[in-house]
Design brief:
This protein is an alpha/beta fold. The chain has one domain. The protein is about 55% helix and about 15% strand. It is built from five helices and four strands; from the N terminus they run βαββααααβ. It has a four-stranded mixed beta sheet, with helices on one face. It is globular. It starts with a strand and ends with a strand. The structure holds zinc ion. Zinc ion binds next to α2 and α4.
Length: about 110
């Protein structure tokens, strides 16, 4: 299977502010990683080498890649209101990949660290 291209970056100030807000909205506290729609994963510098976090965020890249940004967002929001943040199926899948399929998930990507 063809690998998905992705760039891993540190979030700039604007993104860090957004991640704080997102953390409050989702009741998940301090957010260390965030996946954008544009093939970019943002990871705070203190978690730069966290493979499980990377696999978690890459799973979201894959979900967006498979469904398209619109459908993914719609379904994610629906799941969010039905089941909340932690139990929404996209987060469950991301957590399971991170925990049990870390390297397998990472290896499905062409990753550029910037
Ligand atoms: Zn997630």
């Amino acid at each position: 299977m063809k690998k998905i291209n992705v760039t891993v970056k540190r979030p700039n100030l604007l993104w860090r502010v957004f991640m704080r807000v997102w953390g409050v909205i989702t009741f998940s506290g301090y957010i260390v990683g965030f996946t954008t729609y544009w093939g970019t994963v943002l990871i705070r510098k203190e978690r730069w080498h966290d493979k499980r976090l990377l696999a978690h965020e890459l799973t979201h890249v894959e979900q967006i890649h498979q469904l398209g940004a619109l459908k993914f967002t719609w379904r994610y929001v629906k799941e969010f209101f039905r089941r909340g943040y932690r139990d929404n199926r996209y987060e469950v899948e991301a957590r399971e990949n991170a925990l049990y399929r870390t390297m397998e998930t990472i290896n499905r990507f062409n990753i550029k660290f910037k």
